[in-house]
Every structure is written in C-alpha cells, then in structure tokens.
C-alpha cells in the first residue's frame, strides 16, 4: 500500500514480502464482515454504527498523535459538528443528509481553524489542556444558553431526507450504517495516503525536530495547523454521523469524558494507527456495552484495567499485537509509515 | 572589498554584518562584529570555545536576534526575519549536533528537505515517488551515505548523521551554507576526503560556505579564507597560511605545543 515501507532497509524489505497484501486482505475481510452485520447480527447494527462514528473521530486524534501531540478536547469538533447539523435541521426541516454532513464538517473546520490558530503555538501538556479548556467553554455555553441550545436536554435532530427521499427508520438506519462504512474506508484510505505524502511526512516530523523544520524554510505552527484542521474535520464527520444515528445532540457530546474517551481508544487501538482507531473503537464500544450490561458499575474499572494491560505489555496497542502476530518469527522493526497503518 | 558587476554598479556582499552586539548574562558573545562574506568563497571560522562562533551563525540565520547591529543578505536587511524566511532566501544551515528527523530514514530526511524546497503539497503523492528522489540519492552518494539511505537516522553513527545533516542542508540548493564543525564525529581517516568532496560539490553548485572548525588541518587545506574569533569578535582575518602562522593564533587558538 505504501511505498515508504518498501524502501525500508534491504533486510526489512526482504522480510516484509507479501505482508502488505495480507494486511489489505484482512482489512477487506473486516470491512465485508462489518457490511454483513445488518444481516447476520442486526441487533449489533446500532452499536457498530456508533463505534464507526467514534472511530472516524478517533482518527482525528490519531492524526495529532502522529505529530506527538495529544488533545484532551477534540470532542469540541465532534460536538460542534453535531450541533451544526441539529441547528440546520431545526431551521430547514427536511434537509438532506448530505447537507447535514456538510454543515457539520464546515462547522468543525471553521472552529478547528479558529481554535487551531491559537493552540498551535503550544506543545505537550499545554496543547492538550488548552484544547480541553476550549471544549469545556463550549460545553458550558451549551449548558447555560438553554433557550438556544436546549441545555442539558440538548436538541432533537429529526431524521433528514436522503437524496430527497423520506425514509422510514429502518431504511434510514441502513443508509447511515453503510454511509459510515463508506466514510470509514474513504477517510481511512485518504489519511493513510496523507501520512505517506510529503505534506503528511512533514507534519509527522514535528514530533522529532521542529528546529530542522524551521531550517527547511517551514513554519512549524503552520504545519501543525494543517494537521489540526484535518483532525478537526475528521472529528466533525464522526460527530455528524453520531448525531444522525442517535437523533439527538446533547452537551455530553463535548464533555471532557468524550475527549478522554477518544484518546483512550486511540491508545487502545495503537497510537498513531489508522486501522487501530477503528478496531479500538469497535472493541471499546463492545466492551462498554456488554461490560455495563453484565458487570454493572464496574465496567469503567474493567476498561481501565484493560488499558493498563495494553500500555504495560503492548504499548503499540491492539494493532501492535496484530502486527506482531503477522510478523511472528521476524525481528523486523516497522518504519514510521508502517506504524501508521 | 565590494565587488562590481558588469554594469559597473557596486554589488553588495553576499552576507554582511554590521556592529552586531549580544550578551548572555555577563558574557559578550558578539562584540561589535562587522564583517563581509563574498560569494564563491569558503570561509573558516576558528577560535577558542566560547568565543562566539556558533552565536555568529545563530544570528546570521535569525535564530538569535542581536541586541543591536544588522545582518544583510545581498544588501537586504534580514535581521528581523525568522530562520525559515532567511532559509527561503537561500541560506542553509548544518549543525554541530545534527538536526534530523530521527524517526525517518536518511533518504526520507533528504526527501522531506526536497519537498520543503519545492513546496510539494499533493496529499496523495507518496514521498518516495517525488521527482527529486534521484537528486537526493546523488546527494547521499556525495556524502558517502548511500549504503545507509534506508536506515532510520537514530541508528546511525554520529559521523554519518553529521554528513546527512549537511546533505539535508544542501538539498535546499542554498546560495550560502553555514556549517558548524562539519567533520566532527567523522572518522579522522575520512575527514579530508569528506571535505574534499564537500568543497568540490559546493564549488560545482556555486555555493558559498562558512564553517566553524577546530581541526587546523582541515582549515589549512580546505578554506579559502580564515577568520579568527576571540571574545565575541573577529580578531584576525586572512588566508589560511597567514592565519595559521600568526603568532597570536598559535598562542591563543592552536596552542604552541601543537604548533
């Protein structure tokens, strides 16, 4: 898939023969399996749809992780996108699904630009906490401006039309489900391509040497802003899909726990891994739902313990374990680009 | 000193500093430094540790702003500009401690440099497929690092990293290259060979160079001109022969026993 891996050391290249195609095959199988969920396990459809929406948002957090930055406030763009869709539906009843999605993404992109212009001046803990601060400011606005935002109750998001057609609930859920899968594939592929492109590689080099970036004639702030915008847009797509799936948007969309959850899932799946974002989201949602059903109030503890085990014994997350199995027997070290997958 | 072009008008020097002053605490790192660097020369800067040699490079590239004084690039005042804007005007820098992207391979470091130079923005193009790949492989060949092209730079020796750092700077196709101890970390047996190749490449590309150096053998053989730094200013300037035989230089910089 990526040329970069093919240009690793001859020793590495020799041992990587056939591996990308195996990975691609497994990905294809996973996508087909997901597409079959409405037929083979219809009760899981909603759960999987929520996981896919979250996965796309986590992909946004993953992009920033590739530059060594952690945002604890990216639910802001998730929420802004969701509310933009809800406001659109309130002012334009019967608006099309695509319009809701576009409005949400535009809202996320615009807010990403405004917030990004400020936060790209900071790194590390300051970057993370400033993002959190912005998300909490927006959360308090949503809570306090009850007459506009509906306060803690939020706003209902009526079912949008689909290409001008008014669909029944089941039909609409199917459309949203397959749209989520299509967007997962498209945005996942685009993000992978972006990671190995010159602009994506420059973005990732922020992690190791900003001084050299400056001495290549580039502005590290501007480079970070480009990736920040991409991450905001991805969170926006996730938020819009989540809002249309649930039919209601509440301040909980931007609550700090939602942001932390995104980071949690990104680390769980494999920090910086595109596939890991979706696998992490699927596992997280499944564990969350079933653990809360069967383990009552201790499901958070179970998830916390699970993450602890991952960090201690598999710091590259679930994708790291999967890669280890694929490479079993080999001692090859993955390149930066390969880790992205 | 000022050159004259074909039209007979005075052509400003490639780089000129006027009365640069900067202090760090009680230490004067640049004390009224005024100097001109003409195009097409290889100027070596020598001097004891703490004399302000690296500070001079930092000021010329905009990393540090002087308390007073100005830096001109072909007559344009570049003093207030950030490093990236000075780089875009054709001034590149190689560092004493190599500044590389440590999670990338040697070749990828050069490809990123080429992508930055060309302003490549296509998000769907693979970095390894850019048109400048052959040119970058040639640069790696020039610094004898072809065999480590696909190795992550953190795995390389200090000497190899220094050479790749220089290649990354050269990849920008600069007019002026500022290098801080370009051969430190390079095996003694390879120092002259590397400098030979480097100076040849610079001449071929028409790149002017300024390099800080402690190895007097390198200075004697590869510099066109030498500036001796002491206590934040240029103490002496002349040909390598004039400078390296000067009694003050032998006493203060080279050391009498070595001489």
TrEMBL record, chain A:
Coiled coil residues, start to end: none
Keywords associated with the record: Cell membrane, Membrane, Transmembrane, Transmembrane helix
InterPro entries assigned: ABC_transp_permease (IPR001851), LivM-like (IPR043428)
Tree of life domain: Bacteria
Transmembrane segments: 21-40, 46-65, 72-92, 98-120, 125-142, 175-196, 223-243, 263-287, 299-322
Protein name listed in UniProt: Branched-chain amino acid ABC transporter permease
Compartments in which it is found: Cell membrane
Taxonomic source organism: Salipiger mangrovisoli
Membrane topology: Multi-pass membrane protein
Keyword Cell membrane applies: yes
A Pfam short name: BPD_transp_2
Chief place of localization: membrane
TrEMBL record, chain B:
PROSITE patterns named among the record's database cross-references: ABC_TRANSPORTER_2
GO cellular component, one term: plasma membrane
Organism of this sequence: Alloyangia mangrovi
Molecular function terms, GO-annotated: ATP binding; ATP hydrolysis activity
Protein name (record): ABC transporter ATP-binding protein
Record's keyword terms, sorted: ATP-binding, Nucleotide-binding, Transport
Pfam families for the chain: ABC_tran (PF00005)
SMART domains, A to Z: AAA (SM00382)
Domain called ABC transporter: residue spans: 15-256
């Amino acid at each position: 898939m990526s040329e970069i891996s093919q240009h690793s050391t001859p020793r590495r290249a020799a041992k990587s023969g056939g591996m990308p195609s195996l990975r691609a095959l497994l990905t294809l199988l996973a996508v087909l399996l997901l597409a079959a969920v409405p037929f083979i396990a219809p009760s899981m459809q909603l759960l999987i749809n929520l996981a896919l929406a979250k996965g796309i948002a986590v992909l946004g957090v993953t992009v920033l992780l590739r530059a060594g930055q952690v945002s604890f406030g990216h639910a802001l763009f998730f929420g802004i996108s969701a509310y933009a869709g809800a406001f659109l539906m309130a002012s334009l009843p019967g608006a099309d699904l695509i319009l809701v999605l576009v409005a949400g993404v535009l809202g996320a992109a615009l807010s990403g630009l405004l917030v990004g212009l400020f936060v790209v001046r900071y790194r590390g803990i300051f970057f993370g906490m400033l993002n959190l601060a912005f998300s909490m400011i927006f959360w308090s606005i949503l809570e306090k401006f009850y007459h506009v935002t509906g306060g803690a109750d939020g706003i209902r998001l009526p079912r949008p039309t689909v290409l001008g057609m008014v669909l029944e609930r089941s039909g609409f859920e199917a459309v949203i489900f397959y749209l989520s899968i299509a967007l997962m594939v498209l945005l996942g592929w685009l993000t992978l391509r972006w990671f190995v492109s010159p602009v994506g590689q420059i973005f990732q080099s922020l992690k190791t040497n900003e001084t050299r970036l400056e001495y290549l004639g580039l502005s590290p702030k501007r480079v970070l802003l480009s990736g920040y915008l991409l991450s905001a847009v991805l969170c926006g797509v996730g938020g819009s899909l989540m809002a249309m799936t649930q039919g209601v948007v509440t301040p909980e969309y931007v609550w700090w726990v939602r942001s932390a959850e995104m980071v949690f899932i990104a680390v769980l799946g494999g920090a910086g891994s595109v596939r890991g974002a979706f696998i992490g989201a699927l596992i997280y949602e499944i564990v969350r739902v079933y653990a809360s059903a069967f383990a009552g109030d201790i499901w958070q503890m179970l998830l916390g313990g699970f993450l602890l085990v991952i960090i201690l014994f598999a710091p590259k997350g679930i994708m790291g374990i999967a890669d280890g199995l694929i490479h079993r027997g080999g001692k090859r070290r993955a390149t930066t680009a390969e880790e992205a997958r | 000193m000022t050159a004259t072009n074909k039209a007979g008008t005075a052509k400003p020097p490639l780089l000129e500093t006027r009365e640069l002053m900067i202090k760090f605490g009680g230490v004067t790192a640049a004390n009224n430094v005024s100097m001109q660097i003409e195009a097409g020369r290889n100027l070596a800067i020598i001097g004891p540790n703490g004399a302000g040699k690296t500070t001079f490079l930092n000021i010329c590239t905009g990393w540090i702003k002087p308390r007073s004084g100005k830096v001109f690039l072909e007559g344009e005042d570049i003093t207030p500009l950030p490093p990236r804007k000075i780089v875009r005007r054709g001034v590149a820098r190689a560092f004493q401690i190599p500044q590389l992207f440590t999670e990338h391979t040697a070749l990828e470091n050069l490809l990123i440099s080429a992508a930055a130079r060309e302003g490549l923005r296509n998000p769907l193009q693979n970095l390894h497929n850019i048109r400048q790949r052959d040119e970058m492989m040639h640069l790696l060949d020039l610094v004898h690092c072809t065999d480590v092209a696909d190795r992550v730079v953190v795995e390389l020796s200090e000497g190899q990293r220094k050479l790749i750092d220089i290649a990354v700077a050269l990849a920008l196709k600069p007019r002026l290259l500022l290098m801080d101890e370009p051969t430190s970390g390079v095996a003694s047996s390879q120092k002259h060979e590397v400098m030979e190749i480097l100076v040849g490449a610079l001449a071929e590309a028409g790149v002017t160079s300024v390099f800080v150096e402690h190895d007097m053998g390198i200075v004697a053989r590869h510099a066109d001109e030498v500036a001796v730094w002491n206590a934040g200013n240029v103490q002496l300037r002349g040909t390598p022969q004039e400078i390296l035989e000067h009694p003050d230089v032998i006493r203060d910089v080279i050391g009498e026993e070595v001489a």
